[in-house]
Design brief:
Layout lengths: L1 E5 L5 H4 L4 E3 L3 E3 L9 E5 L5 E7 L5 E7 L7 H18 L5 E6 L8 E6 L2 E6 L2 H18 L3 E6 L2 H6 L4 E7 L6 E5 L2 E5 L14 H10 L4 E5 L5 H8 L4 E6 L2 H13 L7 E5 L2 H7 L4 E6 L11 H17 L1 E11 L6 H15 L4 E6 L18 E6 L1
Parallel strand pairs: 1-4, 9-10, 14-15, 14-17, 15-16, 17-18
Antiparallel strand pairs: 1-3, 2-6, 4-5, 5-6, 7-8, 8-9, 10-11, 12-13, 18-20, 19-20
Helix pairs in contact: 2-3, 5-6, 8-9, 9-10
Length: 388
């Protein structure tokens, strides 16, 4: 391994369990490293702080896989995978659709793997994760015996890491598109090849349950509906009508196909291909339950203020469209937006809308999206259920 030595006084976060080393904290050793190389990190006094993978091209110069001085080998990766699977067995309901590995939260930075029945979809987002990819694929194949392991390693993080996108079958046969998953008796369709992220939002399991429990007799508006999972939950919960809005025609087509599989023909439903902001500004209709689950408005720390304006705008117009004694479920998946900032932004939107709002419930990551306690940067998901 290459040896990375930190500047004096810059080792405290790692001693507390944080998995990242920023380039500004490094005194020496980074100059000879190629992106993805394994490294041992030492404090200025020589004490070993852990092992991981380095990338001299990024601000996060090292991502630790272990805080011990040990080989960065197959045995270590196997222990991480076995611990992740044990956590899911202990905490998840009986489901075959869940996140298998959640990056730093499972001790494998940059490695994300989702399971949809007999299909695994992996994202190796960093140079270090790309180095581990063959090992991860082999070990998951041995433990879960999937029909398919499909890779979708692409996007902004890969570009920042200076590595090319990587997509395609890594083990087994070509994936079924779309494939069907079942959650709490609901049938959803997932496009693991062309859909967003790995094809489905597994982190919204709690939101789907909340909407299903509240939907009886209510008129539901699902904005940023994507492939309609929350719309289907509302339909199965007995909604009087479900209106789904999204700017992706293909996603809405998949949503309608899934709606039909759930035999919801008796429930009135509308599928609107439109920009959500423009739709909310233009409509004069009111709804008993409005769901706001947008894509991340903040992808970089420098975009926080602009992103918060977006969150305020969409919540303001949604709150204006809620009937008296109605409900709003509002979410943010922007890593750089804190829970407090999101709360304050929604509160400002409620004040401008002239609505009195109570927070009935708040939640974050589900059990299959664990976050290391010493790594608050991993906490991206926030949801609030509001009584209006």
């Amino acid at each position: 391994m290459h040896e990375i030595v930190l500047k004096p006084g810059r080792d405290r976060p790692l001693r507390a369990g944080h998995p990242w080393v920023f380039s500004g904290a490094i005194a020496s050793g980074l100059e000879s490293v190629v992106a993805g190389d394994p490294v041992r990190v030492r404090a200025a006094d020589g004490r070993v702080l852990g092992v991981g993978h380095a990338n001299p091209k990024t601000t996060i110069a090292v991502r630790l896989v272990s805080h011990d001085d040990e080989p960065l080998d197959t045995a270590l990766v196997a222990r991480r995978i076995d611990a992740a699977l044990a956590l899911r067995r202990a905490c998840l309901p009986d489901t075959t659709a869940y996140r298998v590995l959640n990056g730093e939260g499972d001790g494998l930075p940059g490695v994300v793997v989702d399971r949809y029945g007999d299909t695994l979809v992996c994202q190796m987002l960093t140079a270090g994760a790309a180095r581990l990819a063959p090992t991860v694929v082999e070990l998951l194949g041995a433990r879960l015996a999937p029909r398919t392991i499909y890779e979708r390693s692409e996007g902004a993080v890969r570009r920042e890491e200076g590595i090319e996108n990587a997509t395609g079958v890594r083990a087994g046969s070509e994936p079924v598109v779309p494939l069907e998953i079942v959650e709490d008796g609901a049938r959803f369709l997932v496009d693991v090849v062309g859909g967003q992220k790995t094809g489905f939002f597994l982190d919204q399991r709690e939101a789907r349950r909340r909407v299903r429990a509240l939907a009886q007799g209510r008129r539901v508006l699902n904005t940023f509906a994507y492939t309609g999972a929350i719309s289907i939950a509302a339909g199965l919960g007995g909604a009087s009508e479900v209106i789904s809005v999204d700017a992706s025609g293909p996603a809405l087509e998949l949503a309608q196909a899934a709606w039909a599989r759930n035999e919801l023909a008796a429930t009135p439903a509308r599928w609107i291909d439109a920009n959500v902001f423009e739709f909310l500004r233009a409509t004069d209709e009111t709804y008993d339950l409005v769901v706001i689950d947008p894509p991340p408005f903040v992808r970089r720390r420098g975009d926080v203020m602009a992103g918060l304006r977006g969150y305020k705008d969409v919540n303001l117009h949604a709150l204006r469209r809620v009937a008296t004694s109605g409900w709003v479920l509002t979410c943010s998946c922007s890593q750089h937006v804190t829970r407090d900032a999101f709360r304050e932004t929604v509160a400002a939107a409620a004040a401008d809308a002239g609505r009195r709002v109570r927070v009935v419930a708040e939640w974050g990551h589900p059990p299959d999206h664990p976050v290391a306690l010493a790594h608050p940067e991993g906490q991206y998901f926030k949801a609030m259920l509001l009584a209006v």
